[in-house]
Design a protein that fits this description.
elongated, Rossmann fold, alpha/beta, 5 strands
Length: 244
């Protein structure tokens, strides 16, 4: 009998290891040189009296995955007094500015609520956050990776916060994103169509035309015939070997 010892989740090996807690110097060096000093000054000011540091992270959080969770864990690991508030954009803004989502806004909010690193949620979050919004909500810093994210008429939606020294830089998790997951699904979509049709999901629910549906069904019939032929060949070879 194999004995299995439970050692806690942090001891379970994974494909990707979370980033260790960065110190202030490392955080500052993720930023452009001209804004580092102001960020350090603001951070030291906010952390000197032991009060909560309210950090805001915003996004769509569609198909919530461990890349999202790693970012949120990074934020909480920066300082013990951090209160993490997550802003989740609504379906209307996403469809207008980015395109169709897999999960609805209610599903995305419910999923993020169950992440252990999240202290509070703002919904709907503004598509373009501002310093005014942060001040109204009592937010000290906004956290994101340092890549410039544009919006209509704006080169970088976080530029205002970066210049004000109120941008907390996090690291992306390589090898995982919502786009990566969608690419995997689309690459093998025929197999997923076939699997879900076998489960009883209708072609209308899968948005399949009748010719496409018929093709998948025919492919399944051909596949079963090939399996039967291989099985027959195998039995014949076994019979021949037994006779000799």
């Amino acid at each position: 009998m194999i004995k299995r010892e439970f050692r806690g989740l942090d001891s379970v090996p994974g494909m990707y290891q979370p980033c260790p807690s960065p110190d202030l110097e490392e955080l500052a060096h993720r930023l452009a040189p001209e804004i580092r000093e102001r960020f350090v000054s603001n951070f030291l000011e906010k952390t000197k009296d032991g009060k909560d540091i309210v950090v805001y992270a915003d996004g769509c959080y569609d198909m919530f995955h461990f890349g999202h969770a790693h970012q949120l864990k990074q934020i909480k690991a920066i300082h013990p007094n951090i209160k993490l508030v997550v802003g989740i954009c609504c379906d209307l803004d996403i469809n207008k500015n980015k395109g169709h989502m897999i999960m609805t806004e209610r599903e995305r909010v419910e999923t993020v609520k169950h992440c252990r690193w999240v202290d509070d949620i703002i919904f709907p979050a503004p598509w373009v956050p501002t310093l005014e919004f942060m001040d109204e909500q009592g937010i000290d810093f906004i956290a994101h990776d340092t890549i410039a994210y544009d919006a209509p008429g704006i080169d970088d939606v976080y530029k205002e916060m970066k210049l004000a020294g109120r941008f907390l830089p996090t690291l992306r998790t390589d090898g995982i994103s919502t786009s990566d997951l969608l690419t995997r699904i689309l690459k093998d979509r025929e197999e997923y169509y076939e699997r879900n049709l076998k489960k009883g999901i209708s072609r209308q629910e899968l948005n399949l035309s009748y010719p496409h549906y018929a093709f998948i069904q025919m492919k399944g019939v051909v596949g079963n015939m090939q399996k039967c032929l291989k099985s027959t060949d195998y039995e014949e070879k076994k019979s021949e070997e037994a006779e000799t």
